[in-house]
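About this split. The held-out portion is used to measure sequence recovery: a designer receives only the C-alpha cells and must propose an amino acid at every position. Recovery is the fraction of positions where the proposal matches the reference. Here is one held-out target exactly as it appears in the evaluation file.
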C-alpha cells in the first residue's frame, strides 16, 4: 500500500477555521438545495438511534436508512441510493475500509463520512485511500458532524486539523517494508537479533540492517521506541 498523496485525490486544499477542505472533482456534483439523504451504519443500536435523532433535527437532512453491518449497508445503498453514508470502521462481517471500497464500486458518486472511535494513523490513511471523504471521531461535537455532512455532500473533504496533520505526515512518511515489519514484530516479542535471524533464516547482519531501517523510518532513537511507535500507528500487533 502506498501513501502516495495522489492516491488521496485531494485537490484545491485550503485551511480555514482549523479544518482541511478539498474538493474532489472526480465525484459528481449534487444540487446544494436538495435534501440530503443519509444512511447511518454502526453496529451499536444506541449509536444508530442517537445519530438518527440528531441528524433528523436538521431541516435539510433525511435519514433514509439504518444499517448494523457493512453488508446491510451495501443492500441499503442499492435500494435507497442515499447521498451520504455516515459509518463506523469496526463492524461485523466486513471491515469498514473494505466496505468503503465496495460501496464506491456500486455507487461511485456516494459520499462517505467515517465516524469512529479509532484515530490511529493506520485507520485514517486506509479509510481515506479507500474513498472516505471525511473522518471524524465519535467525540466530535454535534455541530461539527452536521457541518461535515453538508460539506461532503457538496463534494468537499472534511478532516479536522489534528487528523489532517497526521494524515499528511503519514503520506510523507517512508513505508516500512514487509521484511522490516516482520523483524520489528519479532523485536516487539522480545527477540534478540540472533533470535530474529534464526526465525527468519537470515543473517545477524541483515537483521541489524533491517532494525536500522526501522529506526530511521520511524524516527526512533532505539528499538523500544521503534516498537512503541509502530504499535501506536497500527503497523504491527504484538501476539504471544
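Reference sequence for scoring:
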Amino acid at each position: 500500500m502506498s501513501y502516495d498523496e495522489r492516491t488521496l485525490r485531494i485537490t484545491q486544499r485550503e485551511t480555514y477555521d482549523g479544518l482541511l477542505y478539498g474538493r474532489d472533482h472526480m465525484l459528481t456534483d449534487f444540487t446544494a438545495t436538495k435534501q440530503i439523504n443519509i444512511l447511518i451504519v454502526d453496529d451499536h443500536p444506541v449509536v444508530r438511534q442517537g445519530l438518527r435523532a440528531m441528524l433528523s433535527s436538521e431541516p435539510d437532512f433525511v435519514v433514509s436508512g439504518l444499517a448494523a453491518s457493512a453488508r446491510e449497508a451495501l443492500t441499503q445503498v442499492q435500494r435507497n441510493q442515499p447521498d451520504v453514508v455516515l459509518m463506523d470502521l469496526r463492524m461485523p462481517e466486513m471491515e469498514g475500509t473494505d466496505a468503503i471500497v465496495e460501496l464506491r464500486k456500486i455507487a461511485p458518486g456516494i459520499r462517505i463520512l467515517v465516524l469512529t472511535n479509532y484515530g490511529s494513523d493506520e485507520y485514517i490513511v486506509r479509510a481515506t485511500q479507500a474513498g472516505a471523504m471525511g473522518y471524524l471521531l465519535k467525540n466530535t461535537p454535534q455541530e461539527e458532524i452536521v457541518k461535515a455532512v453538508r460539506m461532503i455532500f457538496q463534494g468537499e473533504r472534511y478532516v479536522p486539523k489534528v487528523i489532517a496533520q497526521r494524515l499528511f505526515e503519514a503520506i510523507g512518511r517512508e513505508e516500512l517494508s514487509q521484511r522490516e515489519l516482520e523483524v520489528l514484530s519479532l523485536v516487539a516479542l522480545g527477540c534478540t537479533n540472533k533470535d530474529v535471524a534464526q526465525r527468519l533464516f537470515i543473517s545477524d547482519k541483515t537483521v541489524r540492517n533491517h532494525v536500522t531501517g526501522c529506526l530511521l523510518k520511524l524516527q526512533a532513537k532505539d528499538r523500544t521506541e521503534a516498537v512503541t511507535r509502530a504499535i501506536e500507528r497500527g503497523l504491527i500487533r504484538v501476539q504471544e
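Annotator remark: The first strand starts at residue 11 and ends at 16.
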